[in-house]
Amino acid sequence: MWAREDAHLGRLDNRRGRCIVRLMAPTLLVVHVYCRVLPDAVDAFIQATLANARASVQEPGIARFDIVQDTEDPTQLVLVEVYRSADAPAAHKATAHYATWRDAVAPMMAVPRTSRRYVNVYPDDGGWA
User: Is the separation of the CB atoms in 113 and 63 below 8 Å?
Assistant: First the structure.
């Protein structure tokens, strides 16, 4: 078992193969949303997602909203949403543009989307804006 002290992260422990991060300073919340889209819906999905991303970056709680597409399988995309606070994702999901996107892309999905939450290590908060 190992531990490391870091001014940004706090204590990082490895217990039973899992890392546990205790935050000491406010950090951004980085959410990766994994989307697998039906092959004939990729272009429509991207257009709907671009509209959502463009509106989302206007929200005060969102620092970034990136869309990336797999180079080998264009039906797999990842949305990288960077939030300024823990409350920002809920505020985002309460917007009309999110509801429009959610309803528009639901029938385009090959499988339900999934997500993972992260905190930024590098760059620091100022480097994401």
Answer: no
